[in-house]
Design goal:
InterPro entries: Cyt_P450, Cyt_P450_sf
Number of helices: 8
Pfam families: p450 (PF00067)
Distance between the termini: 33 Å
Protein name: Cytochrome P450
Strand content: 5-15%
Strand order of the largest sheet: 1-2-6-3
Keywords: Iron, Metal-binding, Oxidoreductase
Number of strands: 8
Family: Belongs to the cytochrome P450 family.
């Protein structure tokens, strides 16, 4: 209970603990990340996973060193049915090209009207997928991790290696007492209000609605 990271076995890495908790993976991560805001999980095959709930790390991954952390092939493959080849499922030069093209149209009525139709269409598709998964009691991971192109040092001092994967855990971030106080797990919308006025939080701290 006092461990700050999963037990790492010779050859097996943390596979034993991962498999034992696979059915409750996000909840399994929370107590570890309460103790250490960033941790590494080694597996016998495949890349190392670095999990973080540190807002400065999230900002580094999503903004300050964005080019080093592409979505990667796994994310694009899993989300293709929902996002297609659009900007939200693109990396690198393709992302930059689409972003530049879209920037000229963001304020146009044509784009707003078109987006309404597209969002409705894909929302219905997603609803069917999620309903089928819920009916079958299957989990759906829509959070796929970020790839690491080159060795890097996160703001909290964590080293990440080329070819590894980094995951900022939004589920756990919303439950961190270090970020929200002792009542972090309580449903308390008024925590963002002061004298009836909404007090915005950093999108890198409150990632669910960034």
């Amino acid at each position: 209970r006092k461990k700050k990271a999963p037990i790492k076995w010779p050859l097996l890495g943390s596979l034993v603990e991962v498999l034992c908790n696979y059915h409750r993976y996000n909840d399994w991560l929370v107590p570890y990340l309460q103790k250490a805001s960033t941790m590494r999980v080694d597996l016998p095959a495949g890349p190392t996973y670095t999990y973080t709930v540190d807002p400065s790390n999230v900002e580094h991954i999503l903004k300050n060193n964005f080019a080093n952390y592409p979505k990667g092939d796994a994310f694009k493959e899993n989300m293709h049915i929902f996002l297609g080849d659009g900007i939200f499922n693109a990396d690198g030069e393709e992302w930059r090209r689409q972003r530049k093209t879209a920037s000229f149209e963001f304020s146009s009525k044509i784009l707003r009207d078109f987006s309404t139709v597209v969002f409705k269409e894909y929302t219905l598709k997603l609803a069917v997928i999620l309903n089928n998964a819920a009916t079958a009691h299957q989990a759906v991971d829509m959070k796929d991790p970020k790839g690491v192109i080159a060795d890097d040092l996160l703001p909290d001092g964590t080293k990440v290696k080329k070819g590894s994967l980094v995951v900022y855990v939004a589920y756990a971030m919303g439950r961190m007492t270090a970020l929200w106080g002792a009542d972090a797990c309580d449903f308390k919308p008024e925590r963002w209000l002061k004298d009836g006025v909404v007090q915005p939080e950093s999108p890198f701290k409150f990632t669910a609605f960034q």
